[in-house]
Amino acid sequence: MSRPQQITVLGATGSIGLSTLDVIARHPQRYQVFALSGFSRMAELLALCVRHAPRFAVVPEAAAAGSLQDDLRAAGLQTRVLVGEEGLCQVAADPEVDAVMAAIVGAAGLRPTLAAVEAGKKILLANKEALVMSGALFMQAVRKSGSVLLPIDSEHNAIFQCMPADFSRGLSNVGVRRILLTASGGPFRQTPLNELQDVSPEQACAHPNWSMGRKISVDSASMMNKGLELIEACWLFDAKPSQVEVVIHPQSVIHSLVDYVDGSVLAQLGNPDMRTPIANALAWPERIDSGVAPLDLFAIARLDFQAPDEQRFPCLRLARQAAEAGNSAPAMLNAANEVAVSAFLERRIRYPEIASIIAEVLSLEPVVAVDELDAVFAADAKARALAEQWLSRNGR
Ligand code: NAD
Ligand code: MG
User: Fold this and answer.
1) Which of 8, 47, 310, 393 is the most buried (most CB within 10 A)?
2) 5-151 falls under which CATH superfamily?
3) For a substitution probing ligand 1, which of 216, 229, 334 has the most ligand atoms within 8 Å of its CB?
4) Tens of pLDDT along 354-371?
5) What is the pTM of this model?
Protein backbone atom coordinates (compact mmCIF):
# COMPACT_ATOMS: atom_id res chain seq x y z
CA MET A 1 0.00 0.00 0.00
CA SER A 2 1.19 3.57 -0.73
CA ARG A 3 2.38 5.83 2.08
CA PRO A 4 -0.31 7.58 4.17
CA GLN A 5 -1.28 11.04 2.94
CA GLN A 6 0.32 13.82 4.96
CA ILE A 7 -2.26 16.26 6.32
CA THR A 8 -1.75 19.71 7.83
CA VAL A 9 -4.61 20.85 10.06
CA LEU A 10 -4.65 24.64 10.48
CA GLY A 11 -6.92 25.49 13.43
CA ALA A 12 -6.60 22.02 14.95
CA THR A 13 -7.92 23.02 18.39
CA GLY A 14 -11.21 24.32 16.97
CA SER A 15 -14.47 22.59 16.25
CA ILE A 16 -13.60 21.71 12.63
CA GLY A 17 -10.01 20.86 13.55
CA LEU A 18 -11.14 18.34 16.18
CA SER A 19 -13.71 16.77 13.84
CA THR A 20 -10.99 16.45 11.19
CA LEU A 21 -8.66 14.69 13.62
CA ASP A 22 -11.50 12.37 14.63
CA VAL A 23 -11.96 11.28 10.99
CA ILE A 24 -8.20 11.00 10.38
CA ALA A 25 -7.78 8.80 13.47
CA ARG A 26 -10.30 6.33 12.01
CA HIS A 27 -8.03 5.77 8.98
CA PRO A 28 -4.40 5.53 10.15
CA GLN A 29 -3.38 3.63 7.02
CA ARG A 30 -4.67 6.41 4.76
CA TYR A 31 -3.78 9.59 6.65
CA GLN A 32 -1.03 10.88 8.88
CA VAL A 33 -0.97 14.24 10.64
CA PHE A 34 1.91 16.34 9.36
CA ALA A 35 1.24 19.56 11.31
CA LEU A 36 -1.25 21.00 13.79
CA SER A 37 -1.84 24.64 14.70
CA GLY A 38 -3.54 26.30 17.65
CA PHE A 39 -3.93 29.92 18.69
CA SER A 40 -5.01 29.42 22.31
CA ARG A 41 -5.77 26.31 24.42
CA MET A 42 -2.12 25.21 24.51
CA ALA A 43 -2.88 22.28 26.84
CA GLU A 44 -5.33 20.92 24.25
CA LEU A 45 -2.78 21.42 21.49
CA LEU A 46 -0.21 19.47 23.52
CA ALA A 47 -2.71 16.63 24.04
CA LEU A 48 -3.42 16.58 20.28
CA CYS A 49 0.32 16.40 19.56
CA VAL A 50 0.68 13.49 21.98
CA ARG A 51 -2.23 11.72 20.28
CA HIS A 52 -1.19 12.37 16.64
CA ALA A 53 2.62 12.86 16.84
CA PRO A 54 2.83 15.52 14.08
CA ARG A 55 6.16 16.64 12.60
CA PHE A 56 5.28 20.28 13.40
CA ALA A 57 3.04 22.28 15.74
CA VAL A 58 2.40 26.00 15.18
CA VAL A 59 1.54 28.51 17.91
CA PRO A 60 1.07 32.31 17.84
CA GLU A 61 4.12 33.52 19.75
CA ALA A 62 7.58 32.64 21.01
CA ALA A 63 6.78 32.22 24.72
CA ALA A 64 4.03 29.68 24.01
CA ALA A 65 6.36 27.96 21.55
CA GLY A 66 9.09 27.58 24.16
CA SER A 67 6.90 25.99 26.77
CA LEU A 68 5.11 23.73 24.26
CA GLN A 69 8.50 22.60 22.91
CA ASP A 70 9.62 21.71 26.48
CA ASP A 71 6.40 19.80 27.15
CA LEU A 72 6.71 17.91 23.85
CA ARG A 73 10.28 16.90 24.64
CA ALA A 74 9.25 15.79 28.11
CA ALA A 75 6.57 13.64 26.47
CA GLY A 76 9.25 12.05 24.27
CA LEU A 77 8.00 13.60 21.02
CA GLN A 78 10.09 14.84 18.09
CA THR A 79 7.48 17.46 17.10
CA ARG A 80 9.08 20.82 16.23
CA VAL A 81 7.25 23.99 17.24
CA LEU A 82 7.03 26.87 14.77
CA VAL A 83 5.72 30.38 15.40
CA GLY A 84 3.17 32.76 13.89
CA GLU A 85 1.91 33.32 10.38
CA GLU A 86 5.27 32.37 8.94
CA GLY A 87 5.08 29.00 10.67
CA LEU A 88 1.51 28.50 9.41
CA CYS A 89 2.54 29.28 5.83
CA GLN A 90 5.52 26.92 6.13
CA VAL A 91 3.44 23.90 7.24
CA ALA A 92 0.77 24.74 4.65
CA ALA A 93 3.26 24.70 1.78
CA ASP A 94 5.78 22.04 2.89
CA PRO A 95 6.67 19.78 -0.08
CA GLU A 96 5.78 16.69 1.95
CA VAL A 97 2.19 17.80 2.59
CA ASP A 98 -0.62 16.32 0.45
CA ALA A 99 -3.65 18.15 1.85
CA VAL A 100 -4.33 21.13 4.08
CA MET A 101 -7.43 21.51 6.23
CA ALA A 102 -7.96 25.29 6.34
CA ALA A 103 -9.91 25.62 9.61
CA ILE A 104 -8.62 28.84 11.14
CA VAL A 105 -11.52 31.19 11.80
CA GLY A 106 -11.69 34.58 10.08
CA ALA A 107 -9.29 36.74 8.08
CA ALA A 108 -6.32 35.30 10.03
CA GLY A 109 -6.60 32.19 7.84
CA LEU A 110 -6.15 33.95 4.50
CA ARG A 111 -2.35 34.00 4.11
CA PRO A 112 -1.74 30.41 5.28
CA THR A 113 -4.59 29.11 3.12
CA LEU A 114 -3.24 30.99 0.10
CA ALA A 115 0.23 29.60 0.83
CA ALA A 116 -1.27 26.10 0.56
CA VAL A 117 -3.07 27.05 -2.66
CA GLU A 118 0.08 28.50 -4.22
CA ALA A 119 1.98 25.32 -3.32
CA GLY A 120 -0.66 23.35 -5.26
CA LYS A 121 -1.96 21.40 -2.26
CA LYS A 122 -5.34 19.76 -2.02
CA ILE A 123 -7.30 22.34 0.01
CA LEU A 124 -10.09 21.34 2.36
CA LEU A 125 -11.68 24.75 2.78
CA ALA A 126 -13.59 25.44 6.01
CA ASN A 127 -12.20 28.99 6.43
CA LYS A 128 -14.90 30.64 4.29
CA GLU A 129 -13.77 34.14 5.33
CA ALA A 130 -10.53 33.66 3.35
CA LEU A 131 -12.44 33.03 0.13
CA VAL A 132 -15.03 35.74 0.82
CA MET A 133 -12.32 38.36 1.33
CA SER A 134 -10.16 37.59 -1.65
CA GLY A 135 -12.48 35.60 -3.98
CA ALA A 136 -11.12 36.56 -7.42
CA LEU A 137 -7.47 36.37 -6.35
CA PHE A 138 -8.02 33.13 -4.46
CA MET A 139 -9.69 31.40 -7.42
CA GLN A 140 -7.00 32.74 -9.78
CA ALA A 141 -4.34 31.23 -7.52
CA VAL A 142 -6.23 27.90 -7.49
CA ARG A 143 -6.33 27.82 -11.29
CA LYS A 144 -2.68 28.85 -11.60
CA SER A 145 -1.31 26.20 -9.22
CA GLY A 146 -3.77 23.45 -10.21
CA SER A 147 -4.65 23.03 -6.55
CA VAL A 148 -7.77 20.90 -5.87
CA LEU A 149 -10.25 22.96 -3.85
CA LEU A 150 -12.82 20.96 -1.89
CA PRO A 151 -15.49 22.70 0.19
CA ILE A 152 -15.94 21.68 3.82
CA ASP A 153 -18.84 24.02 4.59
CA SER A 154 -21.68 21.48 4.74
CA GLU A 155 -23.81 23.42 2.22
CA HIS A 156 -21.01 23.80 -0.31
CA ASN A 157 -19.92 20.23 0.15
CA ALA A 158 -23.53 19.22 -0.53
CA ILE A 159 -23.68 21.41 -3.65
CA PHE A 160 -20.35 19.98 -4.79
CA GLN A 161 -21.76 16.47 -4.43
CA CYS A 162 -24.89 17.41 -6.42
CA MET A 163 -23.03 19.20 -9.24
CA PRO A 164 -21.91 17.43 -12.43
CA ALA A 165 -18.16 16.72 -12.48
CA ASP A 166 -17.59 19.31 -15.24
CA PHE A 167 -19.35 22.21 -13.47
CA SER A 168 -16.32 24.44 -14.05
CA ARG A 169 -17.55 24.76 -17.68
CA GLY A 170 -20.13 27.20 -16.28
CA LEU A 171 -23.50 26.59 -14.64
CA SER A 172 -25.60 27.34 -17.72
CA ASN A 173 -23.43 25.03 -19.85
CA VAL A 174 -24.07 22.10 -17.53
CA GLY A 175 -27.81 22.70 -17.18
CA VAL A 176 -27.85 24.16 -13.67
CA ARG A 177 -30.59 26.73 -13.11
CA ARG A 178 -30.15 27.62 -9.43
CA ILE A 179 -28.32 26.69 -6.28
CA LEU A 180 -30.58 26.34 -3.26
CA LEU A 181 -28.57 27.12 -0.16
CA THR A 182 -30.25 25.81 2.98
CA ALA A 183 -30.07 27.55 6.37
CA SER A 184 -31.38 26.43 9.73
CA GLY A 185 -32.48 29.97 10.66
CA GLY A 186 -30.44 29.65 13.87
CA PRO A 187 -31.62 30.13 17.44
CA PHE A 188 -33.56 33.37 16.73
CA ARG A 189 -35.70 32.18 13.84
CA GLN A 190 -38.85 32.61 15.88
CA THR A 191 -37.78 35.02 18.63
CA PRO A 192 -40.12 38.07 18.72
CA LEU A 193 -38.29 40.92 16.96
CA ASN A 194 -38.52 43.23 20.00
CA GLU A 195 -36.68 40.64 22.14
CA LEU A 196 -33.63 40.50 19.86
CA GLN A 197 -32.39 43.67 21.59
CA ASP A 198 -31.71 41.67 24.76
CA VAL A 199 -30.35 38.33 23.54
CA SER A 200 -27.04 37.24 25.09
CA PRO A 201 -23.90 35.73 23.50
CA GLU A 202 -24.82 32.43 25.20
CA GLN A 203 -28.25 32.42 23.51
CA ALA A 204 -26.68 33.32 20.16
CA CYS A 205 -24.14 30.50 20.50
CA ALA A 206 -26.76 27.88 21.39
CA HIS A 207 -27.33 26.66 17.85
CA PRO A 208 -30.30 24.28 17.55
CA ASN A 209 -28.58 21.72 15.26
CA TRP A 210 -24.81 22.27 15.03
CA SER A 211 -22.04 22.55 17.61
CA MET A 212 -19.49 25.09 16.30
CA GLY A 213 -16.99 27.79 17.28
CA ARG A 214 -18.38 30.97 18.82
CA LYS A 215 -17.83 33.31 15.86
CA ILE A 216 -19.61 31.12 13.32
CA SER A 217 -22.37 30.44 15.88
CA VAL A 218 -23.11 34.17 16.14
CA ASP A 219 -22.92 34.42 12.34
CA SER A 220 -25.49 31.62 12.13
CA ALA A 221 -27.80 33.44 14.55
CA SER A 222 -27.60 36.65 12.47
CA MET A 223 -27.58 34.71 9.18
CA MET A 224 -24.39 36.55 8.22
CA ASN A 225 -23.07 33.00 7.96
CA LYS A 226 -25.53 32.37 5.12
CA GLY A 227 -24.53 35.69 3.57
CA LEU A 228 -20.85 34.70 3.66
CA GLU A 229 -21.86 31.31 2.26
CA LEU A 230 -23.75 32.98 -0.59
CA ILE A 231 -20.52 34.77 -1.56
CA GLU A 232 -18.54 31.56 -1.04
CA ALA A 233 -20.93 29.67 -3.37
CA CYS A 234 -20.57 32.31 -6.09
CA TRP A 235 -16.78 31.83 -6.12
CA LEU A 236 -16.71 28.05 -5.74
CA PHE A 237 -19.32 27.36 -8.41
CA ASP A 238 -18.91 30.43 -10.63
CA ALA A 239 -22.51 31.50 -9.91
CA LYS A 240 -24.07 34.94 -9.96
CA PRO A 241 -25.65 36.06 -6.65
CA SER A 242 -29.05 35.93 -8.38
CA GLN A 243 -28.49 32.20 -9.06
CA VAL A 244 -28.21 31.40 -5.34
CA GLU A 245 -31.42 31.26 -3.34
CA VAL A 246 -31.46 30.92 0.44
CA VAL A 247 -34.05 28.51 1.87
CA ILE A 248 -34.70 28.20 5.58
CA HIS A 249 -34.90 24.53 6.52
CA PRO A 250 -34.96 24.26 10.32
CA GLN A 251 -34.09 20.54 10.60
CA SER A 252 -30.65 20.89 8.87
CA VAL A 253 -31.04 17.48 7.20
CA ILE A 254 -30.89 18.68 3.58
CA HIS A 255 -27.52 20.41 3.38
CA SER A 256 -28.29 22.18 0.06
CA LEU A 257 -29.68 21.47 -3.41
CA VAL A 258 -28.95 22.02 -7.10
CA ASP A 259 -31.86 22.83 -9.42
CA TYR A 260 -31.42 21.74 -13.07
CA VAL A 261 -33.19 23.10 -16.17
CA ASP A 262 -35.01 19.81 -16.75
CA GLY A 263 -36.78 20.21 -13.38
CA SER A 264 -34.55 17.77 -11.50
CA VAL A 265 -33.50 18.98 -8.08
CA LEU A 266 -30.62 17.06 -6.48
CA ALA A 267 -30.05 17.29 -2.75
CA GLN A 268 -27.54 15.88 -0.29
CA LEU A 269 -28.96 14.75 3.07
CA GLY A 270 -27.33 13.62 6.28
CA ASN A 271 -27.19 14.10 10.01
CA PRO A 272 -25.84 17.54 10.93
CA ASP A 273 -22.29 16.42 11.75
CA MET A 274 -19.28 18.06 10.07
CA ARG A 275 -17.43 14.74 9.93
CA THR A 276 -19.49 13.90 6.82
CA PRO A 277 -18.24 16.78 4.62
CA ILE A 278 -14.76 16.40 6.14
CA ALA A 279 -14.60 12.68 5.28
CA ASN A 280 -16.08 13.40 1.86
CA ALA A 281 -13.39 15.96 1.05
CA LEU A 282 -10.52 14.00 2.62
CA ALA A 283 -11.26 10.88 0.58
CA TRP A 284 -12.71 12.49 -2.58
CA PRO A 285 -13.41 11.01 -5.08
CA GLU A 286 -13.59 7.91 -2.88
CA ARG A 287 -15.78 7.46 0.21
CA ILE A 288 -14.68 6.53 3.72
CA ASP A 289 -16.40 5.95 7.05
CA SER A 290 -16.78 9.20 9.00
CA GLY A 291 -18.20 7.87 12.25
CA VAL A 292 -21.51 9.65 11.57
CA ALA A 293 -24.64 7.65 12.42
CA PRO A 294 -26.90 6.63 9.51
CA LEU A 295 -29.75 9.04 8.80
CA ASP A 296 -33.01 7.90 10.41
CA LEU A 297 -35.76 9.36 8.18
CA PHE A 298 -38.51 7.84 10.34
CA ALA A 299 -37.21 9.65 13.41
CA ILE A 300 -36.98 12.92 11.42
CA ALA A 301 -40.49 12.35 9.99
CA ARG A 302 -40.81 15.77 8.33
CA LEU A 303 -38.78 18.44 6.57
CA ASP A 304 -39.90 22.09 6.57
CA PHE A 305 -38.97 25.04 4.36
CA GLN A 306 -39.58 28.77 4.51
CA ALA A 307 -38.30 31.96 2.88
CA PRO A 308 -35.86 34.07 4.92
CA ASP A 309 -37.17 37.33 6.39
CA GLU A 310 -34.69 40.15 5.73
CA GLN A 311 -36.22 42.35 8.42
CA ARG A 312 -35.32 39.70 10.96
CA PHE A 313 -31.98 38.99 9.27
CA PRO A 314 -30.59 42.31 7.92
CA CYS A 315 -27.09 40.76 7.71
CA LEU A 316 -28.30 38.50 4.93
CA ARG A 317 -29.43 41.53 2.92
CA LEU A 318 -26.12 43.33 3.57
CA ALA A 319 -24.17 40.27 2.40
CA ARG A 320 -26.24 39.94 -0.78
CA GLN A 321 -25.57 43.63 -1.52
CA ALA A 322 -21.84 43.07 -0.96
CA ALA A 323 -21.94 39.99 -3.21
CA GLU A 324 -23.53 42.07 -5.96
CA ALA A 325 -21.10 44.98 -5.49
CA GLY A 326 -18.10 42.61 -5.58
CA ASN A 327 -14.55 44.07 -5.56
CA SER A 328 -13.66 45.26 -2.03
CA ALA A 329 -17.22 44.99 -0.68
CA PRO A 330 -17.07 41.37 0.58
CA ALA A 331 -13.73 41.99 2.37
CA MET A 332 -15.22 45.07 4.05
CA LEU A 333 -18.39 43.19 4.99
CA ASN A 334 -16.33 40.37 6.49
CA ALA A 335 -13.98 42.64 8.44
CA ALA A 336 -16.80 44.80 9.85
CA ASN A 337 -18.61 41.63 10.84
CA GLU A 338 -15.53 40.20 12.60
CA VAL A 339 -15.16 43.37 14.69
CA ALA A 340 -18.89 43.54 15.46
CA VAL A 341 -19.16 39.86 16.41
CA SER A 342 -16.17 40.11 18.79
CA ALA A 343 -17.72 43.21 20.38
CA PHE A 344 -21.01 41.33 20.81
CA LEU A 345 -19.21 38.29 22.32
CA GLU A 346 -17.44 40.69 24.73
CA ARG A 347 -20.88 42.19 25.62
CA ARG A 348 -19.86 45.63 24.38
CA ILE A 349 -22.77 45.88 21.92
CA ARG A 350 -26.28 44.51 21.61
CA TYR A 351 -27.08 41.85 19.03
CA PRO A 352 -28.99 44.15 16.57
CA GLU A 353 -26.00 46.50 16.56
CA ILE A 354 -23.95 43.89 14.67
CA ALA A 355 -25.98 44.73 11.57
CA SER A 356 -25.91 48.48 12.34
CA ILE A 357 -22.10 48.51 12.44
CA ILE A 358 -21.75 46.57 9.18
CA ALA A 359 -24.33 48.75 7.41
CA GLU A 360 -22.52 51.90 8.51
CA VAL A 361 -19.09 50.65 7.44
CA LEU A 362 -20.40 49.63 4.00
CA SER A 363 -22.20 52.95 3.53
CA LEU A 364 -19.14 55.06 4.48
CA GLU A 365 -16.52 53.46 2.31
CA PRO A 366 -16.68 53.34 -1.49
CA VAL A 367 -16.19 49.98 -3.22
CA VAL A 368 -12.81 49.77 -4.94
CA ALA A 369 -11.11 47.19 -7.18
CA VAL A 370 -8.95 44.63 -5.39
CA ASP A 371 -6.49 43.20 -7.88
CA GLU A 372 -3.77 42.30 -5.43
CA LEU A 373 -3.61 40.93 -1.93
CA ASP A 374 -2.43 44.22 -0.43
CA ALA A 375 -5.65 45.86 -1.64
CA VAL A 376 -7.68 43.13 0.09
CA PHE A 377 -5.85 43.70 3.37
CA ALA A 378 -6.21 47.49 2.94
CA ALA A 379 -10.00 47.11 2.55
CA ASP A 380 -10.03 44.79 5.57
CA ALA A 381 -8.04 47.29 7.68
CA LYS A 382 -10.20 50.23 6.59
CA ALA A 383 -13.40 48.40 7.53
CA ARG A 384 -11.97 47.39 10.91
CA ALA A 385 -11.00 51.01 11.61
CA LEU A 386 -14.48 52.26 10.67
CA ALA A 387 -16.13 49.61 12.85
CA GLU A 388 -13.85 50.59 15.76
CA GLN A 389 -14.87 54.22 15.17
CA TRP A 390 -18.52 53.22 15.52
CA LEU A 391 -17.67 51.52 18.82
CA SER A 392 -15.80 54.49 20.28
CA ARG A 393 -18.37 57.02 19.03
CA ASN A 394 -21.05 55.03 20.80
CA GLY A 395 -19.02 54.74 23.99
CA ARG A 396 -18.31 50.99 23.78
P1 NAD B 1 -13.26 27.55 16.28
O2 NAD B 1 -13.33 28.89 16.91
O3 NAD B 1 -13.81 26.38 17.00
O4 NAD B 1 -11.74 27.22 15.89
C5 NAD B 1 -10.92 28.17 15.27
C6 NAD B 1 -9.49 27.68 15.16
O7 NAD B 1 -8.69 28.76 14.64
C8 NAD B 1 -8.86 27.31 16.50
O9 NAD B 1 -7.94 26.27 16.32
C10 NAD B 1 -8.11 28.59 16.90
O11 NAD B 1 -7.01 28.33 17.77
C12 NAD B 1 -7.63 29.09 15.55
N13 NAD B 1 -7.47 30.53 15.50
C14 NAD B 1 -8.32 31.49 15.98
N15 NAD B 1 -7.83 32.71 15.76
C16 NAD B 1 -6.64 32.55 15.13
C17 NAD B 1 -5.64 33.44 14.65
N18 NAD B 1 -5.77 34.78 14.78
N19 NAD B 1 -4.54 32.93 14.06
C20 NAD B 1 -4.39 31.59 13.92
N21 NAD B 1 -5.30 30.69 14.37
C22 NAD B 1 -6.41 31.17 14.97
O23 NAD B 1 -13.97 27.70 14.84
P24 NAD B 1 -14.66 26.57 13.95
O25 NAD B 1 -16.09 26.48 14.29
O26 NAD B 1 -13.83 25.32 13.95
O27 NAD B 1 -14.58 27.25 12.51
C28 NAD B 1 -13.38 27.30 11.77
C29 NAD B 1 -13.69 27.77 10.35
O30 NAD B 1 -14.53 26.81 9.74
C31 NAD B 1 -14.44 29.09 10.29
O32 NAD B 1 -14.02 29.82 9.19
C33 NAD B 1 -15.89 28.67 10.12
O34 NAD B 1 -16.65 29.63 9.43
C35 NAD B 1 -15.73 27.42 9.29
N36 NAD B 1 -16.83 26.46 9.43
C37 NAD B 1 -17.09 25.88 10.64
C38 NAD B 1 -18.14 24.98 10.77
C39 NAD B 1 -18.43 24.29 12.09
O40 NAD B 1 -19.31 23.44 12.13
N41 NAD B 1 -17.73 24.59 13.17
C42 NAD B 1 -18.95 24.70 9.67
C43 NAD B 1 -18.66 25.30 8.45
C44 NAD B 1 -17.59 26.18 8.34
MG1 MG C 1 -22.29 26.11 6.50
Assistant:
1) 8
2) NAD(P)-binding Rossmann-like Domain (3.40.50.720)
3) 216
4) 999 999 999 999 999 999
5) 0.98
